[in-house]
Design goal:
Blueprint lengths: L19 H7 L17 H8 L3 H13 L10 H14 L4 E5 L18 E6 L4 E11 L22 H18 L6 E8 L7 H12 L3 E8 L12 E5 L5 H14 L4 E5 L8 H5 L5 E5 L23 H19 L15 E3 L6 E5 L4 E5 L5 E6 L3 E3 L6 E8 L5 E8 L2
Parallel strand pairs: 3-4, 3-5, 5-8, 6-7
Antiparallel strand pairs: 1-2, 2-4, 6-8, 9-10, 10-13, 11-12, 11-14, 14-15
């Protein structure tokens, strides 16, 4: 993605304890008026993606994020977290990972005056509509008290941030881990925001940059605090959005009802505070956030007790929120015809992968076609089992193989020079 530069700063009143009707009135009109698909039954391929989610991987990512002494935006450890996120996204095979640098300016225009780590953006290019973006994100910074940014002893404070927001960040990583195996018509951006705790700084600056450059964001979905369930309560999903984004709210309810029909879901509103979806609807984009029950959110956030087992006490709920996000992003981005087949025939294998010179096909084939990520056919041939890719640019490609029984299998490979 090209580097974005903000040329407009939007000043808004605080949303703390502000009535929803007032907020709806001050929001700008949508920059792009996208509609959303009607969903009445599950897509079998997306259902398989959901079933591919693994709670052990989610737990491992949460544990790693909580292992840092703190993840405060003004502290020294935040850069280590940034670098780890980059390496994780790259390990999924996502070809473009961008660091979006920003000045910490909160949503009310106050500039904090310190430097911090970047937003981490993993960009999975769309095959048909590469300039239309579906974004899912959550913040990776944590805090133990809201005034810590002026506290000279803050670096000594432990800030595990398990529910707020290792849970949401791990959910975005899990979504990227699965969806990166497939190809989609629209471009997907998996985002890890920084400096949310000091006023949505990272997401706000990114959304302003996008609006200034007229970037077409179809929808933004947010994960922030997914793992606390009040003892004795039933799992529910609260959807946070403004009335101008009711179409997106309707779509998200359909996703829940179709893929998780036993789960209750309804529109809600935060009694205080805010989260990153607001950065997008304040800049003219449709946005929504999935939240644990707003009247019974974790009482341990912003403290040293925001740990696994106390504050993040229900991984089943975190998996639910992650699965809904995955399904919503997949539906919005649109599976491409070039998506990788789930059941690759054992007698048709590619090696080496990644490849720099000769790609070999293990198995008898009638022919093949190779496509780049835009869906352009760049090479086709019959009967060949060795393909010279030394002249290809580095990046991902799809190969469609046809065997002698006219079975067609699509696989993904990476050219690395």
């Amino acid at each position: 993605m090209k580097r974005l530069f903000a040329i407009v700063i939007i000043y808004l009143v605080s949303v703390h304890f502000v009535d929803a009707q007032i907020v709806n009135k001050i929001l700008p009109p949508h920059l792009y008026n996208h509609t959303f698909p009607e969903i009445s039954e599950p897509n079998s391929k997306i259902q398989a993606m959901i079933e591919d989610l693994k709670v052990e991987e989610l737990q491992a990512d949460v544990d790693h994020l909580c292992s840092y002494h703190n993840r405060r935006a003004k502290g020294p450890y935040i850069y280590e977290v940034q670098d780890w996120l980059v390496s994780e996204f790259q390990s999924f095979g996502i070809d473009t990972v961008v660091l979006h640098q920003f000045k910490p300016i909160n949503t009310w225009g106050y500039e904090w005056g310190f430097e911090t780590a970047a937003n981490v953006l993993a960009v999975q290019k769309g095959t048909k509509y590469p300039n239309e973006y579906v974004i899912c994100g959550g913040h990776y910074d944590s805090t133990v008290k809201v005034y810590e940014y002026d506290d000279p002893y803050a670096d000594t404070l432990r800030s595990p941030g398990a529910d707020d927001n290792a849970s949401g960040t791990a959910g975005i990583l899990a979504t990227a881990r699965i969806l990166s195996k497939y190809n989609f018509e629209r471009t997907i951006i998996y985002a890890a925001w920084n400096a949310e705790e000091c006023g949505l700084c990272g997401s706000s600056e990114f959304a302003k940059d996008c609006a200034a450059d007229s970037i077409d964001i179809v929808a933004y979905t947010n994960l922030d605090m997914t793992g606390y369930l009040e003892p004795g309560n039933e799992m529910v999903i609260n959807l946070l959005y403004t009335k101008c984004d009711s179409l997106l709210g309707k779509f998200m309810k359909q996703v829940v009802n179709v893929y998780y029909p036993e789960t209750r879901v309804w529109y809600s509103w935060l009694n205080s505070g805010d989260t990153d979806y607001s950065s997008f609807n304040r800049n003219g984009y449709q946005a929504i956030s999935l939240s644990e029950e707003v009247d019974h959110m974790s009482p341990y956030i912003h403290s040293i007790n925001d740990v696994v087992g106390v504050s993040l006490n229900n991984y089943e709920q975190s998996m639910l929120f992650t699965g809904v996000t995955l399904a919503a992003v997949a539906e919005l981005a649109g599976l491409s015809e070039l998506s990788v087949d789930e059941n690759v025939k054992e007698n048709l294998q590619l090696y080496p992968n990644p490849v720099s010179e000769i790609l070999k096909i293990d198995g008898e084939i009638l022919g093949f076609e190779i496509f780049d990520l835009t869906g352009k056919n760049i090479l086709s041939s019959k009967y060949e089992n060795e393909i010279d890719v030394s002249g290809f640019k580095s990046g991902f490609y799809f190969i469609r193989l046809t065997d002698f029984e006219n079975n067609v299998v699509t696989q993904k490979f990476f050219v690395k020079h």
